[in-house]
């Protein structure tokens, strides 16, 4: 039956589009990518942005403008409230010393986003859809659950950021639970702005990024950090006299910057442009412009993060609680009780960060800070919802309405946050960020390993598969990033001081590491480690002669073609 279906697929006459014959051999044909008409249903808008034709130029600003949008939506994950909190804690704990870590993490993030964008451009499918077709049922479901956990954790951080911003802007008149409810409502409203056009929605996200740049840039100009120390901290990869707390903060920066759901998001966003995937020249051009756009977007996000680090490094590094208490008391702040009368080093979070800025630089600094946090939380909440839609659609092959998908993904993230906001105070709400950062750190392998696996397979990427340098470099980068984040998890767990929790974590770690090893094994096969191929797969692999065919055995039968 399979053979007959494959024969029927190969015998069908290829459709034509604008005079160009489009292949119907399916996504994983080694000869050509799928036609754009055959792309799966997507939640990311019905319209596609046309790309202007200009064959006379090597580089066209008109084309760059047409491709501009997905990279900036992706960059919002680098500016979410979790990142902002990591930035301000980095500045308050280590001064300018860890700016080079932020720079390195952003560059690594750019390289990983390049892989995600290339997968979406070349295949016409996003990462969740490819995982759905590549992995067997049980690993696929586990992978989906892990990615959903990462999205829920990120969503909760973003909702917390919005709730705190509303609380600060209203001088406490809007309670935290009220801020959570407002965030639910306005997220639904904003998510349907795409009905007015894709480019208008992308412009709205651009506006939110601009608000963040202006808000945190104002704080930067007002504080006037030492530019020499800033440049030294950014380009000198060394942390002088750093203790364990500062090293843990360095690890936290990497965990906050590189987020698993963002890989899935970016691979889907790039599908919003009209690209003839049967034309290798157009695919190559799209990859080039998307990489340029992503570089610009992440450079802007990096500058905004630097603004936040520099403000707290200059103004609050090595400050004690008693100093801040005295300053807040003198300024008439109602939040003086947040800072105990002792000589311990100041500990800040998003809420306290706004308070201390208000105490030292006046009420305007507090309100502008809150506006920046609100823009960060609102924009990342919206992109987080899109991530949830793409992941659910891709892994489960759902065909729900837009409203139903938004309602489900919002409810999963909002419900636990709302409970905490109702029954706990702001300290417990902001304290959740540490746990949520750990949760997302644990999910990183479930995005990084699949993206390296699939972009290394010639059966999927054809001529655009990773070369040897990218395979080795990507493998090393992913290994380092995952090791750093696992260290962060271990540090957090050991700080809990509970034997029962240690036992529970040990049991979970066995299952967790087993699944990571499974994904790594498949990735190594894709990277060309033939010894694993032969020893583990035996005669079946020797008969095929292709190390990547094993990963294709679980594709839908109507996608299979003879190579």
TrEMBL record:
Primary residence: membrane
Q: Which Pfam families match?
A: Nramp (PF01566)
Give the Polar residues compositional bias ranges.
Answer: 19-34
Print the keywords alphabetically. Ion transport, Iron, Iron transport, Lysosome, Membrane, Transmembrane, Transmembrane helix, Transport
GO CC annotations on file: late endosome membrane; lysosomal membrane; plasma membrane
Q: A Gene Ontology MF term for this entry?
A: manganese ion transmembrane transporter activity
HAMAP family according to UniProt: NRAMP (MF_00221)
Q: What is this protein called?
A: Solute carrier family 11 member 2
Q: Which organism is it from?
A: Salmo trutta (Brown trout)
Q: What is the lineage of its organism?
A: Eukaryota, Metazoa, Chordata, Craniata, Vertebrata
């Amino acid at each position: 039956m399979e053979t007959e279906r494959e024969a029927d697929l190969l015998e069908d006459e290829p459709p034509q589009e604008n005079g160009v014959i489009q292949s119907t051999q399916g996504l994983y044909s080694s000869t050509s990518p799928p036609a754009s008409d055959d792309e799966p249903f997507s939640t990311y808008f019905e319209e596609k942005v046309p790309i202007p034709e200009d064959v006379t130029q090597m580089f066209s600003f008109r084309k760059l403008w047409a491709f501009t949008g997905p990279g900036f939506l992706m960059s919002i994950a680098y500016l979410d409230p979790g990142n902002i909190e990591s930035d301000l804690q980095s500045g308050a704990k280590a001064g300018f010393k860890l700016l080079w870590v932020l720079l390195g993490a952003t560059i690594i993030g750019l390289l990983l986003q390049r892989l995600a964008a290339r997968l979406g451009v070349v295949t016409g499918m996003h990462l969740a859809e490819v995982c759905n077709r590549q992995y067997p049922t049980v690993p696929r479901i586990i992978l989906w659950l892990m990615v959903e956990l990462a999205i829920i954790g990120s969503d909760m951080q973003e909702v917390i950021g919005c709730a705190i911003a509303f609380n600060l802007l209203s001088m406490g008149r809007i309670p935290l639970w009220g801020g959570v409810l407002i965030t639910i409502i306005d997220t639904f409203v904003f998510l349907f702005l795409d009905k007015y056009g894709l480019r208008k929605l992308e412009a709205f996200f651009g506006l939110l990024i601009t608000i963040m740049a202006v808000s945190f840039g104002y704080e930067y100009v007002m504080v006037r950090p030492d530019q020499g120390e800033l440049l030294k901290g950014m380009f000198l990869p060394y942390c002088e006299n750093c203790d364990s707390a500062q090293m843990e903060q360095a690890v936290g920066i990497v965990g906050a910057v590189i987020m698993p759901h963002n890989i899935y998001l970016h691979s889907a966003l790039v599908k919003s442009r009209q690209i003839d995937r049967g034309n290798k020249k157009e695919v190559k051009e799209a990859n080039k412009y998307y990489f340029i756009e992503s570089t610009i977007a992440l450079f802007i996000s990096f500058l905004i993060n630097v603004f936040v680090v520099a403000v707290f490094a200059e103004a609050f590094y090595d400050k004690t609680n008693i100093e801040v208490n005295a300053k807040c008391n003198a300024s008439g702040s109602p939040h003086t009780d947040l800072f105990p009368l002792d000589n311990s080093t100041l500990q800040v979070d998003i809420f306290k960060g706004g308070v201390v800025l208000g105490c030292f630089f006046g009420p305007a600094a507090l309100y502008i800070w809150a506006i920046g946090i609100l823009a960060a939380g609102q924009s990342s909440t919206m992109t987080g919802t899109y991530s949830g839609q793409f992941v659910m659609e891709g892994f489960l092959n759902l065909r729900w309405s837009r409203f139903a998908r938004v309602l489900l993904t919002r409810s999963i993230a909002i419900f636990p946050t709302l409970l905490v906001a109702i029954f706990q105070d702001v300290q417990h709400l902001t304290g959740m960020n540490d746990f949520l950062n750990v949760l997302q750190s644990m999910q990183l392998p479930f995005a990084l390993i699949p993206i390296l696996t699939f972009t290394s397979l010639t059966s999927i990427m054809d001529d655009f598969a990773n070369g040897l340098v990218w395979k080795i470099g990507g493998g090393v980068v992913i290994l380092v990033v995952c090791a750093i984040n696992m260290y962060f998890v271990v540090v957090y767990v050991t700080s809990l001081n509970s034997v029962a929790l240690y036992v529970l974590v040990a049991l979970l770690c066995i299952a967790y590491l087993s699944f990571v090893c499974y994904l790594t094994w498949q990735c190594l096969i894709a990277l060309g480690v033939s010894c694993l191929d032969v020893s583990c797969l035996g005669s079946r692999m020797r008969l095929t002669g292709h190390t990547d065919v094993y990963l294709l055995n679980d594709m839908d039968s109507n996608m299979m073609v003879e190579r």
